[in-house]
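Regression report. Comparing outputs from two consecutive submissions.

Submission 1:
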Amino acid sequence: MRVRRVRLLKEPEPRTLEAVLRAPRARRLHGTVDRVRVRSVWMRREDGDMQTRWGWNAQGAAEAEDAPARRAAPARPTAPPADDFLAGLRELLRPNVHAVLRREEWPHPLYPFQEEGVLFLYERDAALLADEMGLGKSVQALAAAGLLFSTGQIQEALILCPAALVSHWRREARRWLPRMADVVTVVQGSGMARHHQWHSRAPLRIAGYETFRSDFTAGRMPERHWDLVVLDEAQRIKNRETELAHACKALPRRRSWALTGTPLENSLDDVLSILEWVTRGSGVGLGSAPALRAAQEGLQLRRKKEAVALQLPPKTVINIVLDMGPRQRDAYERLQREGVVELRERGERLQVTHVLALLTRLKQLCNFCPATGESAKLEFLRGQLAEILAHNRQALVFSQFTDERAGLLRLEREIGPEFSVYHGGMSPAARDRAVQRFNDGDSPVLGLSLRAGGVGLNLQRAAFVFHFDRWWNPAVEWQAEDRAHRIGQPLPVTVYRLIMGGTVEEKVHGILEGKEALFREVIEGVPTPGRSGLSIDELFGVLDLEMPPRVRDDHLVPPDADSGFDGSPG
């Protein structure tokens, strides 16, 4: 039996409005049926007869269908609806989500386990998606939110995440919600600008946790009841006594989705605080582990890589665009401004090596601020490694630099004993010991220079690979990733490329991204000469420099990964 029409009574003062909606429009009211008075529901059986669930007799419905202009006045219902009437009506009006999932034009097909996650979120007002990292929690959340938007069940949503991931979420939102690409609002800037962004009309807002906390405390946010609030890296509110946790839990909202791969980091209080937010404080007064697990059953979905390994591709690459902190940004812009002025002053004496030298210094500064030590990349890497180690996984970290200012030795000092290094400045025996400790599990994180560690090693213990900085040639990076992604690897490999937004790294990434499909098609992962990276025109273009004719005539090319030009002993 199919729903044909739904008659709703809305009761705003001072008069009553009545609306008859055909099924397609009625389904858009699926989420608001409990906020209006349902007067009648007409349904058509397969044999063609009109029947009524409640409020109309079959004869009156049939007459209205045949002659809408002279529709008979309906009789009042003879009995009140059953207690489960609204629940039944909501079920009748539920869209065919499976059909909608396959009809949507996603950037790439969802894997079956991701479709399961989308449906899990879509069907729940309170949900904790606790998949192991690398399974696409943000993609599942955006796809589910897109379904809610397209079926009219939500009009305004808010995504809160760590500050370094704001750009990443914005880019993913524009990819997965293309019809909303122009109206995705990032809350940032001065206090006045943020006040305007909070109060403007926008269906989707994205804000960093600290920005939200500051604006919530300062009263810049409007008194709005959000249709959906998503917390990414929800372990940020594990301490219920923090100002951030109080602010998040005070947000008025209809739906609460928490995303985290590590809901339990230290104690039961961690997940309890998250569930308090998910359920808006209702019914989570649980202190024991069994009671907590029982409460999680209906709220939490968690999958590990082993469970979905057969459904995943052999390797998944994720580009993470990070935002610099203010001091690191100031240092970067000053170096770029002064460096470009110096290069332009060289005039006809400008050479490719001069441009490469400035690009190398800028890339090092993208890793670490030399004056303050500030590093958005390090902050992101620490968070990811904490989750990886908590699940007894291992990881590789590749960098073109090995020095103590911005390379592997700096990472070794910052991260601690679980991080060991492998680079060309070590003796062969020392390099062998580093590999052995990693393969034995004694050192779960191995940092490798791209030149020395990018070829010839078998490191299948790693299920995660990080490119702390990008190289000029994507094929060299692919070969480095294959240290983990090779025969004998029991798990899918997840690769993270760390890119600083608004810098030369993002420009280089954009150029290489445009060539990558062609590279894969032609060379299928085999390393290529330097011409497969940036051309001389592109190299100068990264810094908006005009190439001197003499350089053009020389047909010089950027060095490849074997040239030694990486600012380190390799």
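Submission 2:
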Amino acid sequence: MTRTILAFLAFSPLILPQAPAVTPARVEGRLVDAGTGEGIRKGWLTLRGAGAGAAGYTTVSDANGNFVFEDVDPGRYSLSAEHAAYLRSNNVSGNAGGQINVGAGEIVKAGRVALTAQGVISGRVTDEGGDPLPGGVQVQVSRWRWDAQTGVRTLTQSKQTTADDQGNFRLSGLAAGNYFLSAYGGRTTAAFDDRTVMHGAEAYTTTYYPGASAPDAATPITVAAGSEIANMNLSLRKVRVSRIRGTARDISSGETANQIALHLVPQGAYPISPVTNDAVAVVQNGVFEFPRVMAGNYTIVAPDNAGSAHLVGRYDVAVAEADISGILLPLGPGAAVEGRFKMDSGEAASAGFVFALRSADGAGLNLASKSDATDATARASGIPPGRYWVDIRAGARADSTYVKSIHFGEADATLKPVDLGSGAQPALEVLISPNAGTVSGTVRNDKGDAVAASQVVLAPASRELGGIQRLVKIVAASQGTFRFSGVAPGDYLALALEAGDAGALRDPAFREALADQGTKVTVQEGSMLTIDVPLIPESIGAAALAKLQ
């Protein structure tokens, strides 16, 4: 009997348990215009699974804006939507958190997916006689944006296009907001530095609408969602320009420098991104040239070139009408700074403290150097000469400590920038106190109810101290409550925004515009304070921001 059974098993097919079949799901919703609520036809929608290699699905909305994804595998998905006449949106599900959870066999309602109609700016660019310029003209719109760490305001390009042979242009895909329209001309569109030069000493320069040479004299164009602003015409300005020529030399070896990038930065100006090639020169066999420079005061800067040379330097130059030649730009390894951190009781601070240096010679000179930190001493090197603010980061001990004082040699740098030369510098002596204050609180609406805020800022109440970024603290209050730790003694202003730009909150000018909407508080050493801060509606914050733009 045993042999019979074994023989039967040996010649029988192997039967394994089968995995249950996965029932596909269905995801449906409606694509609508955010302004009118009407359905959008022929919109493209993409359902993308979480994680690398996850499944993705694409569909198109029908004549009423309805869309359906069939045969969707179970999982978690993000939904994006786009249409030629609207701004692309990602993670746009009407469900909480913007994610769609799909179970086997389910019919999932994605809800209303709203797209905002794009704004458009169109017009024509000509020369001073009303004729199109040869070779193409670059046209762009830019907006002010704020750095999230420093609060520095930068005019940043949003869109760019090339005018046609008649000078006509159309810039689409614009979100609602204020824009600066500008244009420049040239023989080719391939290089910024091949612009058409007229009469030898004159050149067409970047011109801002309606005819200014710089953004601070320009008129911003307000674009509403779905609007087309037509007839924004520009005549490029022809201005007298000068050449700046010179040589760059390594002061440590005496040899001429080579392949070192130099930047020409207007003194005291705001930064503009991207920088045009007219403001950049490369040292070739010791020689450099900026061929088209308008009158003004500038700084030639060699930031820390990451190549084998590691040479830095700077040179201030005033440009009038005549060409400038014979400049000798000294380059060297830059300043080396050591930071020493001590507790106010006298012992060395524990590891984790670092310092960063940020240029104080005008926002347009955006130089910074961050130290390495392995113990209570931190070091930074390769820093071009100049004035710098010192920012201190406390790492794991940020909750209980604050910077009590900073000395750079004999100079008090607690609330002032340091002045760096070349080579070895005095040590930064940073005194740390363990008795920092704490400010906790609740964000409340006009009814007194606790509400969420996207950003809560605690910053010095005075403008003089408001630009010292280590004293500015920003947190989120998603549940309506917040806590600031590591607060130095002083007078502060607390603001809570329903929605906003964290970088703009670091700008003292923006905070001043909202000062009457906040709460003032005085912090002493070791204080543990609790305050209420009124919620600033998104519309009020946006209006204050628009005035700065």
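Expected: both submissions complete independently.
Actual: both completed, but the second showed a warning that disappeared on reload.
Relevant detail on submission 2: The first strand starts at residue 25 and ends at 33.
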